[in-house]
Amino acid sequence: MKTRKITAAVMAVAMTLSFVSCEKKDTANENNTSDKTAETTAVTEAAETTTVTESVETTEAAEEATVAEGEVDIEALFGATADINEFITTTDINPPLWKVTDPATGNTIHLLGTIHMLPASITEYPADIMEIYNNADSIAVEYDITAITTDANAQLEYVNGMIYSDGSTVKEHISAETYEKAKAYFESIGAYSEMLDQYTTGYWINQLTSVMLLRLENMQLSGTDAYFIGLAQEDGKEIINIEDLATQTGALNAYSDDYADYTISEVIDSMDDIDEFAESYAELYNGWAVGDGELDFDSDVDVDKLPEDIKDDHEAYVKLMLDDRNQNMAEKASQYLKEGKNCFYMVGAAHYSGENGVDNLLEGMGYTVEKVS
Questions:
Q1: Residue 262: partners with Cβ closer than 8 Å, 6 or more residues away
Q2: Cα distance between residue 130 and residue 215, in whole Å
């Protein structure tokens, strides 16, 4: 059960949400994985989201883990690591891709299923995908995450979306047992301050997932969308936000209190299973790399084994994380088609999964949807 839960946590981030870190944007010719110092800031300064709020004082644990030239010893700070290259089976990628045509006008757009975190070995994309990008005037992404590192207003909006607006703290939303377990874990890696209590359970879950991702060697905490955002910025192409930042933070906070309590406890109990975590992520990546258009971050959760009192909470979580957002994404794609907008459309691969996937919703609207092999 631990593996299933932590797999669902990473899939939710990797497959459906633009990943927010303090790392500067990648470019087509740069690899950001040799130095994880900037990425680590998001965890070791847990109460500092990007550059807005007051930094947490550097802890003794963090100081001991600091090595030459300001780099951070991930293993010393967070625990055992795993090399993702030992788990992935291919570096020749063929991401899921669809062509959508409006029969009434002949207008077309291409839909790309993205993954928001990738092995460091992925530095370029297939020629057919690059041709689609080069021929497009714009790209449409879930949200341009580079705004989090460059726009003070976006930074403030993100922080406001990840703290409790009613004056409550995380202690009032999860059990005392789970809170103490999570607090002890954050303290053990030098990432706790009282300011962290102001942040939502969704933020706590995201930070715990970030720790596991940082422990994967030869990984970059950016993916397909960040790659093409970097290219579009260099090429002067328009970057369209399919969602606003409030929708992104709302998805991160889609957990009910009971479901968040259960998830936080399960993820912490799974922290020692770094190899299983790597294997679970690799299974996700391998499916994406061969163009699987039915990747579902919920598929590894055995609903029958969930406690009875949170099964409904789990279903509500999936609805908020996927179904509701998929409908909006399909409507936006339909809008771009009707306008004849020449854009390359890309959202997390899990948004194309199942009958409520974006591709199926568009087909239900009367568009012709073809999977591109």
A1: 306, 307, 310
A2: 31
Residue 299 has a pLDDT of 55
Closest CA to 217 of 88, 43, 352, 369: 88
Count the residues in the chain.
373
Contact of 218 with 109, CB cutoff 8 Å: no
DSSP labels, 36-63:
-HHHHHHHHTTT--TTSSPPPPPPHHHH
Question: What pTM did the predictor assign?
Answer: 0.85
* pLDDT tens digits for range 154-172: 899 999 999 999 999 999 9
Q: How many CB atoms lie within 10 A of CB 285?
A: 25
Residue 238: strand pairing partners: 138
Residue among 352, 262, 273, 274 at smallest CA distance from 301: 262
Confidence at 221, pLDDT banded by 50, 70, 90? confident
Instruction: State phi, psi for 157 to the nearest 5 degrees.
Output: -65, -40
With contact defined as beta carbons under 8 Å apart, do 137 and 33 qualify? no
E-only strand ranges, the chain: 82-83, 97-101, 108-114, 118-119, 138-141, 216-217, 219-220, 238-241, 343-348, 368-372
> Which H or E run contains 89?
none
R_g of the chain computed on alpha carbons:
20
Mean pLDDT of the chain: 83
Question: What is the residue range of 336's domain?
Answer: 2-372
Distance CA 356, CA 324 (A): 9
Amino acid at 28: A
CA distance 332 to 137: 17
Q: Give Cα 86 distance to the centre of its chain.
A: 22
Mean pLDDT of 195-201: 96
Both tokens assigned to 199: 């942040």
| Burial group, residue 351, by CB count within 10 angstroms (0-12, 13-18, 19+) | buried
Count CA atoms within 13 Å of residue 348 on its CB side: 28
**Number of structural domains in the chain:** 1
Give the pLDDT mean for 189-216: 93
pLDDT at 48: 42
Residue 8: the pLDDT is 63
Count the neighbouring beta carbons within 10 Å of the beta carbon of residue 302: 10
